[in-house]
Amino acid sequence: MDTINKRIYLCLAHMGGQELQxxxxxxxxxxxxxxxxxxxxxEADLEAFVGxxxxxxxxxxxxxxxxxxxxxxxxxxxxEVICQSFTFCASANPITYLGATPVFVDSESETWNMDPQxxxxxxxxxxxxxxxxxxxxxxxxxxxxxxxxDEIMAVAAKYDIPVVEDAAEGxxxxxxxxxxGTFGRYGVLSxxxxxxxxxxxxxxxxxxxxxxxxxxxxxxxxxxxSYPYYQHEHIGYNYRLSNxxxxxxxxxxxxxxxxxxxxxxxxxxxxxxxxxxxGITLHENPSERYDSNYWLNTILLDSDLAIKGExxxxxxxxxxxxxxxxxxxxxxxxxxxxxxxxxxxEALRMALDRAGVEARPLWKPMHKQPVFAxxxxxxxxxxxxxxxRGLCLPSGPCVTEDDVRYxxxxxxxxxx
Length: 416
Ligand SMILES: *Cc1c(COP(=O)(O)O)cnc(C)c1O
Fold this sequence. Notes:
The chain has a 4-stranded mixed β-sheet with strand order 1-9-8-5, sandwiched between helices. It has a 4-stranded parallel β-sheet with strand order 4-2-3-14. Strands 10-12-15-13 form a 4-stranded antiparallel β-sheet. It is globular, with a radius of gyration of 21 Å. It contains 12 helices and 15 strands. By secondary structure, the chain is an alpha/beta fold. It folds into 2 domains: 3-10 and 257-414, Aspartate Aminotransferase, domain 1, CATH 3.90.1150.10; 19-254, Type I PLP-dependent aspartate aminotransferase-like (Major domain) (Aspartate Aminotransferase, domain 2). The chain has helices spanning 19-28, 37-50, 62-72, 93-97, 116-130, 149-159, 210-220, 243-253, 256-274, 343-354, 382-389, 401-414; strands at 55-59, 80-84, 101-105, 136-138, 164-166, 174-175, 178-179, 186-190, 203-207, 280-282, 290-291, 297-301, 360-361, 377-378, 390-393. Bound molecules: pyridoxal-5'-phosphate.
């Protein structure tokens, strides 16, 4: 059978074994709709996992969870929302769905996440310039690493602005022993095919209480008033998770702890194997307070580290999506953009690609994306510098310890 496992990918989905049983039950009982025992069971599993007496709503995507959280924070046309710049586009796109404007804030160099000092500067400057407070703050746990949550939450409390934590990549990560996604008013989870656990596609929103959960469910199911006929007083969305997908999620919750332990084990192995490699730095927890799930292990290359074949980096245009499984991309019109990874990073990515290993540059900061060229940004150079020097390495449950040894050997052989 043709599978997609021929290469070593960053983080492929991995079934624990019980998923099909839950899905079969859904078929056998005809719960083939976006509600039912698997949805309820999955939500209960998630609530037990995140703790802190939180309530969780299962949704069709992490992006939908960001969208509904912002809606519930009252974000609307003409508002501003502060968002970490160093992230995947799904943290920021829903801000624009609501007619609001993202205000991007750069990162600090320890966690790579939102810089709390710059956050406060941004809030003060937005108040000075617009006379209004930003409506929400969206910090992100990039590659699973918790942010400086004590400081970010203190700034948010000082200005009384709700926090929507984008924990899409940080499922199971902890700060000061507490699960990420439970600090803010809402916490976003993603169960896309490449995340810590998957429902093939799906997400969830961590809510503070039952009332907040009910409100999110109302908007996720087309905002219907209780009449015998369809009566609408609000604009709703079709964002509930299917009972079929939730069955996969219930199976995945039986192996989530194993998955997280596996990602951490691979981190420790990358650390040991890369310890004597000059010019390459692995991204790690800055202190005991941080407990990253190491969803993706990432490295930084010193800009003067010489990699074989650098003269060929950016020689040819990329066809399609790097990695392959990412759907349709527009064909790029140029080889270069005004902000791209250093040549040695691209040369190493190409060497790994030829060796059958998927590696990917760090996410390009939103304030450097043409689509957000007009959005206000508070920048310190940190995320741009990291983007130019960094690569994500295979870290998922399908990646074996031998795979990591092979990957590090390819890296070592690529150094001039
Ligand atoms: C994956 C991801 C999302 C979106 O999740 P989907 O389930 O793919 O919609 C949001 N934010 C970040 C940081 C992500 O990595």
